[in-house]
Write the structure tokens for this entry.
Amino acid sequence: MIDSILTWLADGAHWQGEGGILRRVVEHMTYSVSAVLTAALIAIPLGLYVGHTGRARFLAVNAVGVARAVPSLGLLFLAVLWLGPRLSGEVAFLAPTALVLVVLAMPPILAGAYAGVEAVEPAARDAAKGMGMRGAQIIRYVEFPCALPLILSGVRSAMLQVIATATIAAVLSLGGLGRFLIDGLAIRDTPQTASGAVLVALLALTVDVALALVQRSVVSRGLTGRYGKVNTVEVDLGAATAAARAPTLPHTV
């Protein structure tokens, strides 16, 4: 089986044309990225609000649980029955697929956002209030930066789930890597089907590594603890030097 998969992937004809691997990867990423971005625009502000105010937390937690329990394929068929008659052309199939992927992506992003804000130290909020910051400023300058690691972790989790599930687009005759799975099953081409599954897994791993590098670069080292020993020694030496140079006040009796 491994030999047949490698042979299928090594065939240059499978990488070219409208139905080639490169074109399918672009389609798959288009569906996935657009769904995750849409979900992030909805879930991150909502999660920040829930974490900051503590309101509607019960509803948010339960909504996350319900959304995770909904089967994607069943939701896809319901979305087609609901949106299909109201739309026309390719949009009648793109809209239900996008809706399912957005619903799938929202729970981990929402959970990461409000959990990250709730984990912020109360002392940091009190210090911000003492400096005269208002609610929106506290969210922007204190809570959001501190919650960023969990928010990005939620985005990474959502992206993995969406990339794995975007194969359902092929069920509605759309593109993406799911075409290799559906078409391979239709003609009983096992190497094509298995190669499609391998491509989806490789794409998910590649994107996750890329997002991990982005997270490492944008998150403050103070939140991750990524300080080298040399920096620590330099800070200690600097503090000791400053203390030695500080003026000594005369003792009074």
Remarks:
- The mean pLDDT is 82.
- The chain has one domain: 2-245.
